[in-house]
C-alpha cells in the first residue's frame, strides 16, 4: 500500500513488526471489530472471507443489512451467527416506521434469534432518528439493555436522506434515554464534528472509527480531531468489512505515526492509538460481559501455550 500525504510518499511496513504487535495486542486485550457486514451470496465466497478476516480478532460484530424486509435479513444473519457464535455477535436491523417495536418482539430477536443489539439505517430508510416510533423503539431497547448502532455513514444511495444522517439529531435520543448505549457508525462522516460533540456530551455515546487504509489522510484528520477534543476513549475499532479488512485496518492504525514521520504534522501518542484497538467494545456496550471475559482468558491461555511450544 502506498500512501500519499501532500508530496510525501510513505510505504507502511506490514511485515513481521506489525505481526508481533498484533500478537502482543491479542495476548493482553479483548480485540473487537465492531463494524462488519456480510452479503449472503450463493457461492459463499464473502462468507468465507468474512470468517477469515475475523480470525485476527476475539469478537466481531456483524450488522444486518437494510436491503430488504427486516425479517428476512435478520433470519439470514441469525443463521450465520449461530453457526459461529464463539466469534460473531449479531445486530438485528429494525425499521421502526414499519417493523414491530414492542419489548416482546425485541425479546424474540434476542432470545430466539440470538441477537445482542440493533442497527438502524435512518438515512437510507428515510426516517428521522427521533421519529415517534423510533423513540418508542429506544424505550424498549433501553429496557432490555441492548445497544443501538446508527449506520448513517458510508456508501449512501441517491435516495438516502442526508439530513437524517446528522449525528446531532441523536442528542434528543441520548437526553431522553440516558441509559441507552449508542454507537455512531463510521464517525458520522461527513459530519465528524457533530459526532465528536455527541461523544463528548453524552456518557453512553460512542463512535465507530472505521478505518480506510486507502484514505489515511481522512483517518488522520479524524483521529487528531478526536484526540484534541479529548474523546479518544469513546472510539471503537471497526473495519467496515467488506470495504475494509481487519488486519490491514489494524496495521494502518498501529503504524499511524510512522505514516507521518516525514512531515511536520502533529501526531497522536501511540498509547492512545493502541487503546482504540484494545478497547473492550463488548463490555462498554453491555454485550455478553461474562462471555467476553471468558473468551479473553481462553485466548490468553492459547497464546501462552503457543509461546511455550516454540
Q: What would your notes on this structure say?
A:
By secondary structure, the chain is an alpha/beta fold. The chain has one domain (14-309): TIM Barrel, CATH 3.20.20.140. The chain is 44% helix and 14% strand. The protein is built from 13 helices and ten strands. Strands 3-4-5-6-7-8-9-10 form an eight-stranded parallel sheet. The longest helix has 21 residues, at 289-309. It is globular and about 55 Å long. The two termini are 31 Å apart. The model is unreliable at 1-16 (pLDDT under 50).
Task: Write a short abstract of this structure.
The chain is of the alpha/beta class. It contains 13 helices and 10 strands. The protein has a single domain, classed as Metal-dependent hydrolases (TIM Barrel, Alpha-Beta Barrel), CATH 3.20.20.140.
The major sheet is characterized as: 8 strands, parallel
Strand order of the largest sheet: 3-4-5-6-7-8-9-10
One letter per element, helices H and strands E, the order comes to EEHEHEHEHEHHEHEHEHEHHHH
Number of helices in the DSSP assignment: 13
- Spans of at least 5 consecutive residues whose pLDDT stays below 50 are 1-16
The CATH architecture comes to Alpha-Beta Barrel
Q: What is the top-level CATH class?
A: Alpha Beta
Number of domains: 1
Count of β-strands: 10
Considering the protein shown, what is the CATH homologous superfamily?
A: Metal-dependent hydrolases
- Supply Rg: 19 Å
Amino acid at each position: 500500500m502506498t500512501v500519499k500525504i501532500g508530496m510525501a510518499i510513505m510505504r507502511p511496513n506490514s511485515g513481521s513488526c506489525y505481526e508481533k504487535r498484533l500478537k502482543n495486542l491479542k495476548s493482553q486485550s479483548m480485540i473487537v471489530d465492531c463494524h462488519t457486514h456480510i452479503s449472503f451470496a450463493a457461492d459463499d465466497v464473502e462468507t468465507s472471507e468474512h470468517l477469515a478476516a475475523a480470525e485476527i480478532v476475539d469478537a466481531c460484530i456483524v450488522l444486518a443489512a437494510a436491503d430488504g424486509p427486516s425479517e428476512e435479513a435478520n433470519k439470514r444473519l441469525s443463521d450465520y451467527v449461530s453457526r459461529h457464535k464463539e466469534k460473531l455477535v449479531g445486530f438485528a436491523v429494525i425499521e421502526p416506521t414499519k417493523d414491530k417495536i414492542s419489548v416482546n418482539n425485541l425479546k424474540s430477536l434476542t432470545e430466539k434469534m440470538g441477537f445482542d443489539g440493533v442497527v438502524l439505517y435512518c438515512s437510507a430508510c428515510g426516517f428521522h432518528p427521533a421519529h415517534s416510533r423510533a423513540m418508542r423503539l429506544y424505550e424498549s431497547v433501553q429496557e432490555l439493555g441492548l445497544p443501538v448502532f446508527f449506520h448513517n455513514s458510508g456508501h449512501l444511495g441517491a435516495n438516502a436522506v442526508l439530513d437524517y444522517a446528522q449525528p446531532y439529531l441523536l442528542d434528543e435520543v441520548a437526553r431522553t434515554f440516558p441509559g441507552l448505549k449508542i454507537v455512531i457508525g463510521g464517525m458520522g462522516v461527513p459530519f465528524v464534528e457533530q459526532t465528536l460533540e455527541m461523544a463528548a456530551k453524552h456518557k453512553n455515546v460512542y463512535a465507530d472509527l472505521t478505518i480506510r487504509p486507502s484514505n489515511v489522510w481522512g483517518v488522520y484528520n479524524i483521529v487528531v480531531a478526536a484526540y484534541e477534543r479529548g474523546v479518544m476513549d469513546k472510539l471503537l475499532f471497526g473495519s467496515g468489512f467488506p470495504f475494509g479488512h481487519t488486519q490491514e485496518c489494524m496495521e494502518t492504525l498501529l503504524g499511524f505515526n510512522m505514516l507521518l514521520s516525514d512531515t511536520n504534522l502533529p501526531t497522536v501518542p501511540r498509547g492512545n492509538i493502541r487503546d482504540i484497538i484494545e478497547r473492550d467494545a463488548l463490555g462498554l456496550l453491555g454485550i455478553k460481559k461474562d462471555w467476553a471475559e471468558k473468551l479473553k482468558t481462553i485466548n490468553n491461555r492459547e497464546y501462552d501455550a503457543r509461546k511455550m511450544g516454540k
